Amino acid sequence: MVDTYVGSIDQGTTGTRFMVFDHSGQVVGNAYEKHEQIYPNPGWVEHDPLEIWENTKEVITAGLDDAGIDAEQLEALGITNQRETTIIWDKETGKPVHNALVWQDRRTTERVEELQEADKVEWIREKTGLEADAYFSATKAEWLLDNAEPLKLQSSRGGNLRSRAEEGELLMGTIDCWLIYNLTGNHITDVSNASRTMLYNIEDLEWDDELLDEFDVPEEMLPEVRPSSDENLYGHTDADGFLGAEIPVAGALGDQQAALFGQTCFDKGDAKNTYGTGSFYLMNTGTEAVSSDHGLLTTIGFQMSGEPVQYALEGSIFITGAAIEWLEDVDLINNAAQTAELARSAGSTDGVYMVPAFTGLGAPHWDGRARGTIVGMTRGTRKEHLVRATLESIAYQTRDVAEAMEADSGVELTSLRVDGGAVKNNFLCQLQSDIIQTDIVRPEVDETTALGSAYAAGLAVGYWDTVDELRKNWQVDHEFTPEAEPQTVDKMYDRWHDAVERSRDWAQEEAE
Question: Within 10 A of 239 (CB to CB), how many other CB atoms are there?
Answer without folding.
Answer: 11
